[in-house]
Design a protein that fits this description.
globular; binds magnesium ion; binds (3R,4S,5R)-3,4,5-trihydroxycyclohex-1-ENE-1-carboxylic acid; 8 helices; about 200 residues; alpha/beta; three-stranded antiparallel sheet; 8 strands; Rossmann fold; binds adenosine-5'-triphosphate; single chain
Length: about 200
């Protein structure tokens, strides 16, 4: 990782997307440590700026207000350097957010089965899962969102795997992605998707 005092990483900016409970916050934090990058969790940033928990924002201001905050936060985090960004579960679903994120750099989508998501979220306070039958809601929301999450750059499964293994796979896949970007750029074709290799 370290050479001549420089940190070699596949990327200096990456976002994590995916359904609720797939591990974006936890894996994003661990990935940021592994790559020596700053860490921003968009849900936590909104909570801090608004001064309310996400359930309070949904209940008092409405989901539309929360989505507007997300949009504003995407605008800001795509301007950051040296950062791992963990998105909220719905952030990548909004078309304009998705476009801005994909233009900025690779978006790693984490996946898990509805059963895993249910187990990981059942004692938490995600407002969209405060329903009578959360597992059915998870299944139908996931079905609906799946084609959109598929538009991410790299896809990694998180079911039944320790976080270290997931982080390791993400880093390997990011190197492969960066190498492919580099090869295409060298052929003079140029591609969207942010920086190719990052050393600093
Ligand atoms: N690979 C894993 N194995 C076991 N537990 C995990 C794994 N990844 C995440 N978790 C746990 O699952 C729960 C949900 O994870 P996390 O909060 O990171 O999900 P998220 O994708 O950020 O969800 P949201 O979209 O709601 O923010 C947490 O308690 C976390 O510690
Ligand atoms: O999937 C979603 O729409 C959400 C996921 C969470 O990260 C929070 O952003 C919020 O609970 C909404
Ligand atoms: Mg999260």
């Amino acid at each position: 990782m370290f050479s001549s005092g420089l940190i070699e990483r596949p990327v200096s900016w990456v976002a994590l997307a995916g359904f609720m409970g797939t591990g974006k916050s936890r894996i994003g934090w661990e990935l940021s440590r592994a790559l020596a990058l700053h860490f921003v969790d968009t849900d936590k940033l909104i909570t801090r700026v608004v001064g309310k928990t996400i359930p309070e924002v949904f209940a008092q201001e409405g989901e539309g207000y929360f989505r507007a905050c997300e949009h504003e936060v995407v605008h800001r985090v795509t301007r950051l350097e040296h950062a791992v960004i963990s998105l909220g579960g719905g952030t990548f679903i909004q078309e304009d957010n998705r476009r801005q994120l994909l233009e900025r750099g690779p978006v790693v989508v984490l996946w898990a089965t509805p059963e895993t998501v249910y187990q990981r979220t059942k004692h938490s306070d995600r407002p969209l899962l405060r329903v009578e039958d959360p597992l059915s809601t998870i299944r139908s929301m996931m079905n609906e969102r799946e084609p959109v999450y598929r538009q991410g750059t790299i896809h990694v499964h998180s079911d039944g795997r320790p976080s270290e293994e997931i982080v390791e796979e993400i880093i390997e896949r990011l190197w492969a992605w960066a190498d492919a970007q580099h090869a295409w750029a060298a052929q003079g074709e140029g591609t969207a998707g942010g920086d190719h290799r990052a050393a600093d």
